Request: fold
Amino acid sequence: MTRDEPLTVADIARLAQARLPRELWDYVAGGSGAETTLAANRAALDEVAVLSRVLAGTTEPDSATRLLGSASSMPLAVAPMAYQRLLHPDGEFAAAEAAQAAGVPYVVSTLASVSVEEIAKTGATTWFQLYWLRSPGVVESLVARAEDAGCEALMVTVDVPVMGRRLRDARNSFVLPDDVVAAHLTDGAVGRAHDRVPGSSAIAAHTAAVFAPGLGWPDIEWLRDRTSLPLVLKGILDPRDAVRAAESGVDAVVVSNHGGRQLDGAAPSILALPAVAEALTGRAAVYLDSGISTGTDILRALASGADGVLVGRPVLYGLAADGARGVGRVLSLLTEEFRAAMTLAGCTDIAAVRALSTVRTVRAS
Reply:
């Protein structure tokens, strides 16, 4: 980074926007439809007010925890995100290396532009995210590859029966450059992500060709029987689905609206979190995704019932701004902010954060 060292994720986002072509910035920052859920995620997080505790007698809070058995320096994992080589030549390598240095898990996407085997060589603690594909053989192969690569959990994304209508990408006729590919997928449909069609997204065309829209609970139960790895479902908003997940042997759920990129009009994740956490008490871990961009957001999430969070776009901003160093700066800022928030809220450790109470505020219009 050639400018003064950024002090917030928002600073890094501005650096990324200045460096990226408009269509790439739109791909990263955009949402679906009118982007109402994208905006609502941020607004809802800002309305969560924490009731801090006092006289806790702490000066050095302990942010370390375990996420599904994986050791983590803080209650955060890097969310699964596709095609990271779009943003920097080192792509997933750089992001995973930064996660390893920060001591947090890194979730490898099915649509990664570097293979899980290569990413594992960074030494990062890895989980593997699975999109359900039309070919059962490819699904089974990906599970086996993740296990053989040493991944410590499997995360199934369940809120993409079809890709949401992402209007920025359609207006930009967005395509992947020839040198960025889905490293885990090699069938003939892969080329669709590189074919420009005016007024449409090539990535949407590719996913429509390879994703299976009919994913159901029997598939989750099949996967539970197929692997001994901890199993996570990402994309849960309704407590009834959370309960069904626990009954199906799932170890954790991620309360998520896909960062506002799927159903426009879906509830902000932070609003859905308390009911899901209450429904799963003692039955499965609960993580939050969609909109986390500050250490205070992490505090808010844990005080609202989460065991940890997934962070997505901020990592991509760091990657675009300065590769592994940029991602490292994002993770360092979030760690610094979270530990400061813990101290100010009177929390010595993660258990104390989760015991905090919250109220909701309404911002003046």
